[in-house]
Amino acid sequence: MRTLVVIGGGAAGFFGAINAAEKNRADRVILLEKTATLLAKVRISGGGRCNVTHACFEPKQLVQNYPRGGKALLGPFHRFQPKDTIAWFEQRGVELKTEEDGRMFPITDSSQTIIACLMQAADNAGVEIRLQQKIETLDKVDGKFHVAGLEADAVLLATGSQPKGLALAEKLGHTLVPLVPSLFTFNIPNFPLEELAGISVDPAQVDMGGVPQKGPLLITHWGFSGPAALKLSAWEARTLHSHDYQTTLHVNWLPSISNLADHLLSFKSQNGPQTLSRPAVPLPRNLWKKLLEIHAFDPQKRWCDLPNKELLRLASLLQKDPYPVSGKTTYKQEFVTCGGIPLDEVNFKTLESRLCPGLFFAGEILDIDGITGGFNFQNAWTTSYLASQAM
């Protein structure tokens, strides 16, 4: 009988342990978790509903949602992708539903459904779960791993961005890509739109001089959130970190209008006697009036009295509205990092270390991170499944 040890009781660790135990019932599979709580991130994901995966079934398209790691995941996604995740949960009695934006949740809208499924599957497969395990060392002697008083034939490290897990890998020969926060919202000092907190514009487009990101943009008490902001934070994570989160964010409030200046000129010609307080574009009236105010346009002025030079200035501001960013705020409790185990040190056919045979990796401990929408969980399911089969 072989002994397989999984370190980490999150999504990747649990899924890896279950599938390893199911593949070979003769193996002894032991899952070690340092805290008293299992599947903590699963519990809080998606506002407590658990965004299990995303309805994107073409691997080449799927990998485009990973600012780091997409190229490495292309092969694995041909072997285990969202369709396989859906089937895995359905086979165990959990049906998923797809929302308009592609995110997939259990039909119960409760993360407890996913937790109960994973716990039951682990129990059925005979996974031994040990909580509150203080793991100080992970050594390999004569081809065997020694950890927490156990001797193991193979080890799966699925400790996420926890420094201790990375330190264990480093001791076994791995280098580390420095950890940097990803998926966060933007703090705007003296935010002029604060009174409009709760208003969402869909679509809006945001950029910081790199690749613009489009989607719903949420105005908050402290700045900007929503999918557009979160996607930008992921793609620009390292740049923002290097600038200490001090930069200028530009908002295009109307990316769906290709020639805004012509649109406003046409509106002016047809609505000349109306005041500027009447929105000329599909934006919430309160937001429209506030944007006029902060950019020094008199809402009581008539459209016909607005010089074309000022109209062009208004069009320019609506398409490139600047806001000074000073800091970030974690997105709810769903903290994600980029960085971790360098991808060239891992064989992505098996998720086995190229430096230490018998050591496997899965999930966020790898230098892989996705945008919001279920992509980080899919990375966890895919990498842990392939690791479990190889172990």
Write the layout of secondary structure elements.
Layout: E1 3-7, H1 11-23, E2 28-32, H2 40-48, E3 53-54, H3 59-62, H4 70-79, H5 82-91, E4 96-98, E5 103-106, H6 111-125, E6 128-130, E7 139-141, E8 144-147, E9 150-152, E10 154-157, H7 163-171, E11 177-182, E12 184-187, E13 200-207, E14 213-219, E15 223-225, H8 226-235, H9 237-242, E16 246-252, H10 260-270, H11 285-294, H12 308-319, E17 321-326, E18 328-330, E19 336-340, E20 346-347, E21 352-353, E22 359-361, H13 375-390
Parallel strand pairs: 1-2, 1-10, 2-6, 10-22
Antiparallel strand pairs: 3-5, 4-5, 7-8, 8-9, 11-19, 12-15, 12-18, 13-14, 13-16, 14-15, 16-17, 20-21
Provide structural commentary.
By secondary structure, the chain is an alpha+beta fold. The protein has two domains: 3-180 and 333-390, FAD/NAD(P)-binding domain; 184-330, no CATH class. 35% of the residues lie in helices and 24% in strands. It has 13 helices and 22 strands. The strands form six sheets. Strands 17-16-13-14-15-12-18 form a seven-stranded antiparallel beta sheet. It has a five-stranded parallel beta sheet with strand order 6-2-1-10-22, with helices on one face. A three-stranded antiparallel beta sheet has the order 3-5-4. The longest helix is centred in the last third of the chain and has 16 residues, at 375-390. The protein is elongated, with a radius of gyration of 25 Å. The two termini are 13 Å apart.
